[in-house]
Amino acid sequence: MIRVILPFHLCNLARVHGEVELAVETQVTQRALLDALEARYPMLRGTIRDHVTHQRRPLVRFFACEQDLSHDSPDAPLPAAVATGAEPFFVVGAIAGG
User: Fold this and answer.
1) Which long-range contacts (CB under 8 A, 24 or more apart) does 78-85 make?
2) Residue 12 belongs to what H/E stretch?
3) Which of 23, 34, 69, 85 could form a disulfide with 62 if both were Cys (CB 3.0 to 4.6 A apart)?
4) Kindly report the CA angle at 70 between 68 and 75, in degrees rounded to 5?
């Protein structure tokens, strides 16, 4: 099972507490993981990725294994520790302002 940690506001929207565990049947990539997340929690569609282009929203970042994966290809395999569930995949809302 893949472990996903969502920011507080998305946990509230999805009505979950703490980590979300997902099964991904194909190669574990950002696209496959986010597809599985949106399939299980349809209320999250459009909050993490654009509805049409499926690209990451500008103020959303992805982290795993102490690495920023936000600019990686959506089809690049995620680290093995994420694929095995040893490490979580973090969806983080970026902070902007001045």
Assistant:
1) 78/28, 78/29, 78/30, 78/33, 82/2, 82/3, 82/28, 83/2, 83/24, 83/28, 85/1, 85/2, 85/3, 85/21
2) helix 8-14
3) 69
4) 115
- The tokens of 34 are what? 């986010």
**Residue for token digits 């302002």?**
97
What is the domain partition of the chain in residue ranges?
A: 2-93
pTM: predicted TM-score of the whole model, two decimal places: 0.91
pLDDT in tens, 3-42: 999 999 999 999 999 899 999 989 999 999 999 999 999 9
CB-CB neighbours of 15 under 10 Å: 8
The domain over range 2-93 is classified in CATH as 3.10.20.30: yes
Count Cα neighbours of 49 within 13 Å in the Cβ-side half-sphere.
Answer: 19
CA 41, CA 17: separation in Å to the nearest integer?
13
Tokens read off for 38: 């949106």
